[in-house]
Amino acid sequence: MLCRSFTTLAFYLALILLSACVPTVLAEDVKGIRWPEGQAIPKFSQPAETLDAIELQSLSSDEQITFSSLQGQVNAQRPRILLLDARADEGRDTWAETPTVALGERKIYDRDERFELLRKYIGEFKGYVLYDPKKSSHYRNLAGTIAGIEHLLPVSVRLAGELQNAGLKLEIIHDLTTLPMTTGPEVYKYMHQEVWPRCTKRLLVSADPGRNGDHSHTRDIAAAVGAAVVWLDNRDPDERDLMRKFFAEMAAGDAIVLGWYTTERSGITTASEFGIGTVPADFYVSGSVYGSGDDAIEIPPIPPRDSLDNKAYLTIFISDGDNVQYNQRAMRKGWDRNRRVRGTIPLNWTISPALVDIGPGLMNYYYRTATPMDCFVTGPSGMGYMMPVNTLNEPGAPAGVYTTEPAMMRGYARMTQRYLRRSGLQIITVWDNLTPQHREIFANECDDLEGVTVQNFRDDPSVESSEIDDRLRFERLKIPYCTTPEHLDRDIRGRLARWNQKEPLFLAYQVNVWQELSPRKIKELADQLRQEFGDTICFVRADHYFDLRREADGLPYNLTKLSSTRNRSVPDSTAEIDCLSDGSMATSMEVTSPHTIEFEFQSQVTVDRFRCLCERPQDIVVDVLFCADGDFGQLTKRKDDAPVNQWLDFATDATRFVRFTVRPREPNHSVTLSEIEIFGRE
């Protein structure tokens, strides 16, 4: 009884100390961070010309906890510290030396010099948060969270002694060794009650602090903005309920999770209940460096497509691009290794739209080196991995609908639209399924969305293809996660054998990137099929696939993307205007005076809707004329001062020519026009 009373007294004394009014460091208070409303992940300023770098392999687990916090808080002012992974798939220095990342010189510190690196910056900190991982490894997360909020450094008991011997003395501001908790749930209950109220609610890091866990990846971002770092097992009902308490205070559409979970589906479905996406980042290193500097994205143009024919159209998605660590590591290795294969067959590469924030130089490398046959699409299920409907029964994640509140789904869809626009991505691969209401929300909120795939794990009959409002196609994959060339070949041949060849056939597949279906294997299979079936089989990009599918179904399709469509500048027919119909917001035309762009279709069509995209819609005037035979004195329809940056439903009679006249709203001003899209049908 005496021992229990003493422990309880110590616990409450610690509560008083830790709850003291210490100023909270908010991201918006840090000069080197840009994190406006609507942006998922904070952006860091331009890196220093010379970065201080050290390999993670030179640091013990607890030193990684300290140095990742050091990195994040120092880099919040200006990126100056780079943590390197000597075992990275792509090579330790590959990204640092990639032109689209454009890092400067690096001063490498070895293990014997690690404290010299710490000494260089220790004057920027007020003190230590002391913890003992032997009591519970979860104190690493608690210490790191408190340190990020109060601009301190988390240090273990052992490391504190080594630092003292090295002459690196700071005051111990918080001594967590006096706390009585010994289990993860106890630590996170305490965190939720006493620390979470001072954390940002826009970002949470889920990171394993255990022996073989994650002690450095994305912890720098958490430390930079005062985000909580937690690790709960969502298979356990009590721990799942505790995790829900964190998520309940985060807003769908304004919050994101970085990291991973004890199991995929138990964690993803828990976050999905609240409309919160997860960016898998448990092996993503130095986000506070790669997420810095210029974030302009070089969106690659979309090549024109051929007209619909009576063929079998196949499109292949390469999985797992929602993982930013895959984008940073294995994808780079595979991308470079297959440079001779890419460009010989259309392939759809899943990639995370979060790279716009956390790795724009990485995204630009893929975009800049892509061929016209490389199409980029989002990994599941938009901006961050979310699973609105789970079709598989797993511990902690029974099959069912998880995103049940329309407001939650709407928030997620709105965030996804913002990142579709910023990244130029137009296709989403959803895991697993979407209810009719989910599909309506995607169609209403995501103007840039051209198509969505849904998963049919174990041939679940509830996963169906559908179309919303004659606009957005949801395509059930024929195989959702194919692992072998034999399986893919067998399924394709079986469907070709049953095809009546009286109408186009559409086949969409996703392959498991971690198994045998490499781009080289896919090309070998495609070559064999084309040799046997000739021109009746056609592999296409995903954006072309969905547009062809719309045309085959008698729905409005993108007339401006047809190779037969002609566009010209009037009266100056030599002006370069292909940039206005290439699918890229990164290419544009500057307009300083009234300028007319004319589109001519191969035959007469009916127009259903159109839109113009520009940077400052309030500064531009767009007038649109429609005619059947090129005589604009005889119009089929017109629209003056058309709305910009939104779709306008605008049905016309038979039309073959469309003219857009654009001008600045105010004289002596200039405006930038990025894209014109016209949807219709023959």
UniProtKB/TrEMBL annotation:
Keyword set, alphabetical order:
Signal
Q: Which SUPFAM superfamilies match?
A: Galactose-binding domain-like (SSF49785)
Sorted alphabetically, which Pfam families does this protein's record hold? Answer: GxGYxYP_C, GxGYxYP_N_3rd
Q: Which residues form the GxGYxYP putative glycoside hydrolase C-terminal domain?
A: 310-548
Q: Give me the segments passing through the membrane.
A: none
Q: Which InterPro entries match?
A: Galactose-bd-like_sf, GxGYxYP_C, GxGYxYP_C_sf, GxGYxYP_N_3rd
**UniProt signal peptide:** 1-27
Does this entry carry the keyword Signal?
yes
Q: Tell me yes or no: is Signal among this UniProt entry's keywords.
A: yes
Q: Where is the GxGYxYP putative glycoside hydrolase third N-terminal domain?
A: 215-290
According to the UniProt entry, the coiled-coil residues are none
The name under which this protein is listed is: Uncharacterized protein
**Source organism (scientific name):** Stieleria varia
